[in-house]
Amino acid sequence: MGFEGFLGILVVVVFFVVSAFFSCSETAESANEQLDQLDDGMGNIIADGEHMTRQEAEDAQARGELYDTYY
User: Fold this and answer.
1) What is the mean pLDDT of the segment spanning 51-61?
2) What is the mean pLDDT of the chain?
């Protein structure tokens, strides 16, 4: 394997790292949008009739508990 082969592998690895970064970034943005919509304006979150702090809501969202919520 010569220099061209190494360079090709390096380009592929960089592509996958960059695409994974942007994928995670988009997921985080959509998660923040969901919590912003459930915000009561005072820094608390109201989801499915429950009142919780933003940190509690982020933890619940990470566990998958805020997948399909309503105000």
Assistant:
1) 89
2) 78
